[in-house]
Amino acid sequence: MSISNDVITIAGNIGNDPISNETRAGKAVINFRVATTSGYFDQRTGAWVENGTNWYAVSAFGNLAEHAKGSLHRGHPVIVVGRLRQREWEANGKKGIDIELTADAIGHDLRRGTSAFVRRPRSGQGSAPAPSEEAPLDDEPTAAEHAAWGDAGLVPTGDTDLAADSEEAQGRAMSFA
């Protein structure tokens, strides 16, 4: 007997700050919602016509959840590939259907902006990171992440090394909010 899953790809915007947690077994999990809006350009009126918004509940586990925690925030444009699941619910006399996606891959939608990739060492691989490279508190970017963003021509906003008067630097500035 073969098992098949409904694998889909969605592109949309994160609707809430992702919520990270752990399963009972101690495995990392992150949950957030993604809104996708479809539409078309009406040549008769010269205007964009929206067909409505679909909302998806997205969950990711393990390393994907840990990496998503440090990378994703509300409003970010993302592309998510995962397994589709439909769940009926009832609460306070209301009924509805949730469309859930268990993510296999998540990435920023680069049609809408730039992103920098920083490879994280696998657990149990190599030696412990130097103190200056340890994961910072409160999800502050590491020195390696700053270096990768610099290599990509990006400068974090609020960076003390940023020349605030430079138009070029302001044009390359990005936000970590």
H-E order: EEEEHEEHEHE
> Tell me about the biggest sheet?
5 strands, mixed, barrel
- Globally, the shape reads globular
**Average pLDDT:** 79
The tally of helices reads: 3
Class based on secondary structure composition and strand pairing:
mainly beta
- Low-confidence spans: 127-138, 158-177
Number of DSSP strand runs: 8
Helix content: 10-25%
End-to-end Cα distance, whole Å, is 47 Å
Question: What this model shows, in words?
Answer:
The relative contact order is 0.14. This protein has three helices and eight strands, in the order E-E-E-E-H-E-E-H-E-H-E. It has a five-stranded mixed β-barrel with strand order 1-3-4-6-5. A two-stranded parallel sheet has the order 7-8. It has helices at residues 62-71, 143-151, 167-172, and strands at residues 7-14, 19-22, 28-42, 47-61, 77-91, 94-108, 155-156, 173-174. By secondary structure, the chain is mostly beta strands. It is globular and about 50 Å long.
